[in-house]
Amino acid sequence: MPGDFTDLLAWQEASALVADVQEIASRLKGIGATDAAAQLISAAESISANIAEGYGRGFGRDYCRFLRIAIGSATEVENRLHIAVTGRRIAARDVEKAIKRTRRARALTTGFLGWLERELKKGKA
Q1: Closest of 5, 16, 7, 3 to residue 104, by C-alpha
Q2: Which terminus of the chain, N or C, has less C-beta within 10 A?
Q3: Are 17 and 98 in contact (CB under 8 A)?
Q4: All domains of the chain, ordered by start, with CATH?
Q5: pLDDT reading at 1 higher than 90
């Protein structure tokens, strides 16, 4: 296992996503943009926060629960980015990078969850 949660690729990608989302949030426009920006940032921060918090609790079933929450938060971020585009709060081209990073963070977290669940079944984690 990595020495620290910051060594996890899933956490690194999720952490980088926060910076992307903050930039996007600062440029949202229209009715409700301030609330939408706050919700988007909160969801993005939740991904890395849950990966880190679960790590701090040890590599058991509890960590699996936190990883599932992180995956759900990544899905929420992607949804909120799509809604921002369909609501004309921002242009689609301006969220493409963040959507790709969100999907990568979700895929890395999903892969880590799968690995952890397999290790738990073997009694190794």
Answers
A1: 16
A2: N
A3: yes
A4: 5-120 (1.20.1440.60)
A5: no
